[in-house]
Amino acid sequence: MKEDIEQSENSVQIEIRAPLIIQTNKRVNEEKVENGCNEKTQNRCMVYLSTFVAVCGSFAFGSCAGYSSPTQSAIREDLNLSIAEFSLFGSILTFGAMIGAITSGPIADYIGRKGAMRMSSAFCVAGWLAIYFAQGALSLDIGRLATGYGMGVFSYVVPVFIAEIAPRDLRGALTTINQLMICCGVSVAFIIGTMLTWRTLALTGLIPCAILLFGLFIIPESPRWLAKIGRQKEFELALRKLRGKDADISEEAAEIQDYIETLEKLPKVNLFDLFQRRYSSSLIVGVGLMVFQQFGGINGICFYTGSIFESSGFPSDIGTIIYAIIQVPITALGALLIDRAGRKPLLLASGTGLVIGCLLTGISFYLKGHEIALKAAPTLAVTGILVYIGSFSVGMGAVPWVVMSEIYPINIKGAAGSLATLVNWFGAWACSYTFNFLMTWNSFGTFMLYAAVNALSILFVIKIVPETKGRTLEQIQATINAS
Known about the structure:
Belongs to the major facilitator superfamily. Phosphate:H(+) symporter (TC 2.A.1.9) family. Belongs to the major facilitator superfamily. Sugar transporter (TC 2.A.1.1) family. Keywords: Membrane, Sugar transport, Transmembrane, Transmembrane helix, Transport. It is a multi-pass membrane protein. GO terms for molecular function: sugar transmembrane transporter activity. This protein is mostly helical. Helix content is about 85%, strand content about 0%. The protein is built from 20 helices and no strands. It has helices spanning about 1-65, 70-80, 85-130, 135-165, 170-190, 200-205, 205-215, 225-230, 230-245, 250-265, 280-295, 300-305, 305-310, 315-340, 345-370, 375-395, 400-405, 415-440, 445-465, 475-480. Helix 1 (about 1-65) packs across helix 3 (about 85-130), helix 1 runs antiparallel to helix 4 (about 135-165) and helix 11 packs parallel to helix 18 (about 415-440).
């Protein structure tokens, strides 16, 4: 009887407490809903501003990449350059980017993400000024090499910085803006390059660098980098500045600190240490995506779009304008979808479209070579190229950079990021250099080869690449390296 009485009293107390708990939680949730819009805008305002400042580096990247195409004839005429001299001017950009890729990780780890962006902007400014004042091939090449170095550093540090400052629900979309702004930079260079002289076009490359350098005085440093180097007070100030003065950062700060403390127990790594078993999963994913992104043919097709259209019998100027217009809105669509659909679905849809685009273009060259349905061949070619460009822009262009910025633990992020970026730029050089040789060998076979590589990328994504949507960086890195 005594036990029954005690149980009855306990059950009554539980019944009394339960409604109070529910009412309290309900009241808190109602308060959050009432204040949600203002808090959400306030909390994320600095994140949006920081992202805007960082992607000015991405726009500068696109301006560098798109500069040579509309200026080729004018530069050659004004400075009396041979084809070989201008080819060196165009290709040396990639060598500068490879050097930048090698050094980008250690630099970003040593002087911070903001410091790396400042240094990269300085190289781009120096390069553009050298091109503007150039009176011969040497000054042009030095300037192009400097801007290429800046591109290589930007290609690593911008997505990493955005991934480290963004809330988990916005990280994919904000990181994808990196690729969107690269596309915008290329398209703007293509369009205004037809209206301005080549020297004036070089000066326009200074604008995004100036905005970036000014904005870096306003935005905070990456909190995760500050925590990594032990600057505790600055870490908390930066995180609070990003999340808002009224936001509760205790849970996020504790999670970051716990993860940093765990990583500090691990030995410091260099490039050769990356190949240890513990890092193999993240290394395979990051480097593998870069290999498939580049060796699927993007830079060969991008650099020589006009000649592809001419070879197939389609007007090159019309095709190039359509190409420049289509990639920006489709890249924007990918940015909107990445945090809703997820990384893997976008990669799989993109890979499928790349295969279809290569097959259509290859078939058009096969028909033309065998003089079958000659009127249909140009239409197939332009359709295939546009499907290819659209598919690349929506997924394979941006998502590998997003995944790379997410999967590497912070103690190897510098070395691993440098390796992945170096592989990317080497692939860009190899693809663009071999494209004309492959087309001379067999146009149909070239696109069938690219189709095969893109088909392999689909299998790679299905089997190897993890889904990272909606998870913190610490959760992603702990899971992938534990597996």
